Amino acid sequence: MSDFLLIHGAMHGAWCWRDLVPELNLRGHRVQAIDLPGHGGDMTPISKITLDLYADAILDAIERDFAGGPVQLVGHSMAGYPISLAAERAPDKIARLIYLCAYVPAAGQSLADMRKSAPRQPLLPALIRSEDGKSFRVDPAKTEELFYHDCPEGTAAYANMRLCAQAVAPQAVPCPLGENYASVPRSYIRCTDDRTIPPEFQVTMTHDWPAADVYEMETSHSPFFAAPQELARLLSQITG
């Protein structure tokens, strides 16, 4: 049995793990999913949200829900950055970092920088920026093709009711990492039919990782909806 803390990606919330949590529970794991600041039920104002605040929320959840850990820390998409920062701050609280079609921080690069360096930017045409430039949303008419094209019928409608504005600030700063981060085991799950983060860029981000630490799923950017049983099985396999 493992303890899992699930961290959602941009614009999402703990709600996106709806189908995965019970599948992990059936396999005997203890699981929590949280809303990062400004997401889901958390009402933190956009102007207050930072990458540091995201990492604080993760470490607070480990203390609150798992008595300090260590936990299997799963980060989807954008969450690759805050889970990495959490590991740098408190490596003893994290048994393993698991990047689920997520950004792996590169030295000196913000998440926005990494997105721009990808060979394609399928998300960019769908973004709707706020008037003050501090946040963005995705055009609801395009969420299905970007995030949920292989998910059960009704998934996009369910998500569109819950997707929130995404603060720009956490994605505009590099993630300072050092020996603490390097000491934490890590795994990556690539999604080969991802229409948000190009699959070939997921390969680039993990090109120098040991083959044993990289896995693949033939799904969209949302395997927690598209194949929750398979994802739960794979997470169980990764954590032994």
TrEMBL record:
It comes from the Bacteria. Keywords: Hydrolase. GO terms for molecular function: methyl indole-3-acetate esterase activity; methyl jasmonate esterase activity. InterPro entries: AB_hydrolase_1, AB_hydrolase_fold, MES/HNL. Residues 4-233 form the AB hydrolase-1 domain. Pfam families: Abhydrolase_6 (PF12697). The keyword Cell inner membrane does not apply. SUPFAM superfamilies: alpha/beta-Hydrolases (SSF53474). PANTHER family: AB HYDROLASE-1 DOMAIN-CONTAINING PROTEIN, METHYLESTERASE FAMILY MEMBER. This is Alpha/beta fold hydrolase. It comes from Rhodalgimonas zhirmunskyi.
